[in-house]
Amino acid sequence: MPNAAANSIAENLARVRARIGRAAQRVGRRTDEITLIAVSKTFSAEAIRAAYNAGLRHFGENRIQEMQAKHPQVAELEATWHFIGHLQSNKVHPAVELFDRIDAVDSVPLGRKLDAAASGHGKRLPVLVEVHLGSEASKSGVEPSGLPVLAEAIDLLPSLDLLGLMAVPPYSEDPEQARPHFQQLRELRDELSRRLGRPFSTLSMGMSHDFEVAIEEGATEIRVGTALFGARPRKAE
User: What is the pLDDT of residue 7?
Assistant: First the structure.
């Protein structure tokens, strides 16, 4: 990757970290409570390497085939790889091979297949349950009313480690429009903790345009792509 492009990613990262710091300070949180996941889908292995060299250690991808192509070029990086998209059941085995975490479990059958695959690989796989917030039919995730049953089932699977919840609220130009959804996800997480009698540490919510609001509402992980890498290539979306 040309030095100018790598420098741009490093500069973008500095700006994002400054935004994280200001948002955390507003609500009395520490920045080390918040994990920045670089959403590297559609971007090259060279861009991932530049982001890694700038200090990023968590990366999110949502296409198995794309990650399979990139993996040989980034396999040696000491990074945590998050699968952040809707996972089709026939892609479970390569997903478990390629990724350290599956951040979008949305059904019991998917959870069971992930559990079996993780067991076959001799690993305990960290996962998040994706909750569908808002009325967008195109978005995946369990409805809030179905969350307790799904989470209880996932929590019993021996090769999965349920860490918490994730959600992608409906997009709005005004980040404040996402605040009620972020509040709802936090409340659902807290209710789930009470129901199952144990803490769930992870709230994955907030993207490039609204992550400050998500941090104010308790996000422990934010997923940032364009604010780090720039506009996405059109071809792979």
Answer: 85
Q: How far apart are CA 88 and CA 118, in angstroms?
A: 16
Domain harbouring 38, CATH code = 3.20.20.10
Number of domains within the chain: 1
Which of 63, 129, 127, 128 has the alpha carbon at shortest distance from 98? 63
Q: How far apart are CA 66 and CA 213, in angstroms?
A: 31
Strand ranges for 5-159 from DSSP E? 35-39, 58-61, 80-83, 101-105, 125-130
pLDDT digits (tens, 9 = 90+) for 73-97: 999 999 999 999 999 999 999 999 9
- Where in the sequence is the domain holding 83, given as residue range(s)? 3-228
pLDDT per residue over 107-146, tens digit each? Answer: 999 999 999 999 999 999 999 999 999 877 777 899 999 9
How far are the Cα atoms of 34, 77, 132, 153 from residue 147, in angstroms, in the given order? 24, 35, 10, 10
- The two tokens of residue 70 are 């990139």
Contact 200, 193 (CB under 8 A): yes
**Cα–chain-centroid distance for residue 57?**
13
pLDDT band with cut points at 50, 70 and 90 for residue 236: very low
